[in-house]
Amino acid sequence: MLSRNTLSGHRDVILKTGTVPAKPVRTATLDVSRVEQLSLCVRYLDNNLNIEKNEINNYVLKEDFLQFVPVNSTTCQNLATVILVTLKNLGIKCDYLLGQGYDGAAAMSGNFKGVQSVIREVHPAALYVHCSAHSLNLALAHSSNIHHIRNCIGIIKSVRNFIKISAKRTELLKNKIKEFLPETKWTKLTSMCETRWVENHDGMLRFSEIYKPIVATLKELQLFIDIETSSKALQLYRYVTTSKFIISMITATTLFSITLPLCKIFQSVKCDLSEAVDHVETVLSEVKDMRTNINENFKKIFNKSEQLFISVNEEE
């Protein structure tokens, strides 16, 4: 926890709330004890003091998590009050509040009764900005709603959960990765998240990179004596070795490899507006180019998918 006077002297303070520290994805969520709460974070400028010369060299942009705050009511007025009272109790001068960032939910972004409008009645300079990372999340979630892509992501989550819950399965996958891909740094699958698409980027890209060891793991798990393990492994094996799954996976990873750098930039503490805009333009240009040359690009995706399909089904 930051001390009460850590931020009190800073002139530029931007308020952010969300379910994850320093990542404003949603306003509030239930914790494991079923208590509704929001996370409170601040983004501010800190001076880089040269102690020897007793002078400020430059200013450094920082972003810190303050605390989780229980909320009994999620009305706009109450949320705004909770945020302002909590900041005051922490000794932060809201007179210098210059911005506030949330997701695009009406309760937070509403121009008349949203949290941001309530706070701006007290602090007019606190301009509201819809979190760019959340906007990208929404765009990717919408584009991934095509049922083949949605099913592909769901299967990847199922495979990851199936292997993770067992130490034997995890160790088997680790050994298969060493056998098939001795040079890779990966030793396990990573999680996939409903809201944080940067994790879905990483999860999808890693799954495709270690795809062959995963298939080999599922194939060997079918030989286990335990009926539950063998039957589930067979079911997942049949899913991940279909042409629909492989084409969907390669298509998704092709797009995710383009949007991953942008997603990470948006969630960086030192996110620079001009740099972010340049990256957005680059991503848009690449996507437009993919659409313009759709036949050529899909031919590459199909050829790659075909080779992968043949390699995992050649023994069938």
Give me a quick take on this structure.
The chain is 54% helix and 16% strand. By secondary structure, it is an alpha/beta fold.
Give the helices and strands, then pairings.
Blueprint: E1 13-18, E2 29-30, E3 36-50, E4 55-70, H1 76-89, E5 97-102, H2 106-109, H3 115-122, E6 127-130, H4 132-143, H5 147-164, H6 167-180, H7 197-209, H8 211-221, H9 227-240, H10 243-266, H11 273-292, H12 294-313
Parallel strand pairs: 1-5, 5-6
Antiparallel strand pairs: 1-3, 2-3, 3-4
Helix pairs in contact: 1-3, 5-9, 5-10, 6-8, 7-10, 8-9, 10-11, 10-12
Give the distance, in angstroms, between the N- and C-terminal Cα atoms: 58 Å
Oligomer: single chain
Mean pLDDT: 82
Classification by helices and strands:
alpha/beta
Describe the biggest sheet?
Answer: 6 strands, mixed
Radius of gyration: 24 Å
The helix-strand sequence is: EEEEHEHHEHHHHHHHHH
- Stretches where pLDDT is under 50 for at least 5 consecutive residues are 1-11, 18-27
Secondary structure: helix percent: 40-55%
Beta-strand share of residues: 15-25%
Number of helices: 12
Instruction: Say how many strands there are.
Output: 6
Categorize the overall geometry.
Answer: elongated
What does this structure look like?
With 316 residues, this protein is α/β, with parallel strands linked by helices. Helices cover 54% and strands 16% of the residues. It is built from twelve helices and six strands. It has helices at residues 76-89, 106-109, 115-122, 132-143, 147-164, 167-180, 197-209, 211-221, 227-240, 243-266, 273-292, 294-313, and strands spanning 13-18, 29-30, 36-50, 55-70, 97-102, 127-130. Strands 1, 2, 3, 4, 5 and 6 form a six-stranded mixed beta sheet that branches. β3 and β4 (55-70) form a beta hairpin. α1 packs across α3, α6 (167-180) packs across α8 and α7 (197-209) packs across α10 (243-266). The longest helix is centred in the last third of the chain and has 24 residues, at 243-266. The N and C termini lie far apart (58 Å).
